[in-house]
Design brief:
Belongs to the UFD1 family. The protein is of the alpha+beta class. It is built from 14 helices and 33 strands.
Length: 567
Amino acid sequence: MDYELRRARQKLQKEQNERKEMAKLKLQRERKAKEEASRQRQAIEEVQRARRLDAAEAQIKADEQIAENLLSGGGIMFHRILEAILYPGVGDKIKLPPSCFTGLSDQGAFDKGTVYFRLSIAGQESSSETSANSDSHGVTHSGVLEFTAEEGFVALPPHVWSNLFPSEAPDHPLIEIQYVRLSKGSYAKLQPEDISFLDIPNHKAVLETSLRQHATLSQDEVITVRHGELTFKLRVLELKPSPSVSVLETDIEVDIVNPDAGSEKSNQKVLIPLTFGAPESGVVEEGVYMYYKFSLDNDMWSTIASGNARIEVKLEADTDSGDTDLYISKHPLMFPTHHQHHWSSHDLGSKTLILNSQDQNLGLGTYSVGIYGFKGTTKYKVLVNIQDNINRGQQAGLSTSSIDVDSVECGNCKHYIPSRSIALHEAYCRRHNVACQYAGCGVILRLEDAKNHVHCNRCGKAFQQAEMEKHMIVFHEPLHCSCGVILEKEEMVQHQSSDCPMRMITCRFCGDIVQAGSSPMDMRDRFRGLTEHESVCGSRTAPCDSCGRSVMLKEMDIHQVAVHPNN
C-alpha cells in the first residue's frame, strides 16, 4: 500500500514538474514573440520614418530645383528629356521638336531675347554646384537652330555631341534640356591642343570666324576650328563673367595660351622656324612632307623691293638613297603641296629657288617651305639666305659688253667669233657640237650630251634622259582637287590659286581668312570680282561716314562716288 502511494506521489510530482516546464517554455515563447513583434514594429516604423524623410528631402530638392530653374530661366520653367540624334551641322545650335516651341512661346521665352539651353545626360546629378561648374563631363550649353525635329528627339550638331559624349555614346542617349538665361561673355581663355594652330596667320581672326557659328561657350568644352583642309581643337579654360556665357552680339577679349608640352608631339603638320643664314638638317621619307617657315620684316622687304637683294632658298639633298621636291608658298597658304604652291623646283639632287622683287607673289609676310620625299628616304639640308644683288649686277654688266665689230657668227653654234679664227672654230664646232633639232629648241650640245637631251612629247620641255620619268610623274599625272576637279599639275596650281571654291582668301570686308566659295549668285557681284563669301559678307550694312545712312559694305564705294563725289 505504501509502495503504491509513493509511486502515485512520484507520478503526480513528475506531472506537476512537466506542467511547470511547459508553462515556463510557453512564457518564454510568448516573451520572444512579443520581443520579435516589437522589433518588427520598430523596423517598420524606421522604414516609414526613412521614407517620410526621403520624401521630404526629395520635395525640398524638387522645390530647390524648381526655384533654381526659375532663377536660371528668368521666371521661365522649361524642362524636357529627349532622345539625342546626330545631324551634320556646324556650331552649337540644336534642333528641337515643335512642342518645345509651343512650351517656350506660352511662357513668353522669345520675348526675353535669344533662347539658350543647358544640356546634360539624363540621370546626371543637376545640383546648383554642378550648374555653376559646367566643366563636369556630360554638360554643355547651346542655342536653338529650328523647331523641326521629330517629337521625342533632339538633333545635336557634332560640336555639342562630342562635348556631351567625349568617348562613346550609348545606343539611345537621353538628354536633359533646360532653358537658361546666359550673360554676355567678356573674356575667354583658350588653349589649342596642337601648337601648329599658332602658325596660322591672324589666327584670332580665324577663331572669330569659327565662333560666329556658336551661340554659347562653356568652360572646359572643346571647340573645333577649321582652316581650309586643316582642323584644330581648342579647349575653353576660363570664361568671364560666368562659366557659361553667350557669344552673340558681344565683344569678347580672347587670350590664346600655348599648348601643353606633351601636346606638341602630334600628327598635325608643324612649321619649323628657319633663321636666315643658318642651315637646318633633316630626313624625309617617301611620300611625306617636312615644313619650315621664315618671315620678311619691313627692313628685309624694303631692301628686296629696292632690287638690291634677293631671297635664295637652297636645298642640298643626298641623292644616293632618294630624291626630293622643293615647294614654297606665302601665307595664308600654310602647307604647300605639289599642286598648291607659289614656287617649286623638281630638279634631281640639290636645287635652288630665287625669289626677287619682280615676282608679284613676293611681299611682306610669312612663307612656308615644303620638302617632299619624292623617292626613298633622303637626308637634306635647307638654307634660306638674302643674297646681295650688287656684285651680281656688276658681273652681268661685264658679260654684256658690246660685240667686237670684227666678229662673225658661227653657222653651227650661232656665237660670234673673231673673223681671224672663224674657219678653225667652225671646223672644230661642227665635229664636236650639234644643235637640237626639236622645233623651237635649237640648243647647242656636245655630241656626247646630245643622247641624253630629250623633250617631253606632251609639253615640249627639255630634260636629261634621267629626269624624264620624274617629269612625267610630277607634271602629267592627273591630280585630284578636294573640290572634285581632276587636272595636271600646272593647271591644278592655277585652279587652286584662282578658281577652286575651297581656296583660302582674305575677305576684303571682314579681314578674315576664309574659304572663297563658288561664284556668287548675283551677277553684279561677279562683275565686281567678289567670291561667294565676300558676296555674303559684303551684304552686311554699315553707316556711311559722311551721311550716316546704312549702306551695304560691297556698295559703299559706289555710294561714296554717287552721293558724295566731293569727298
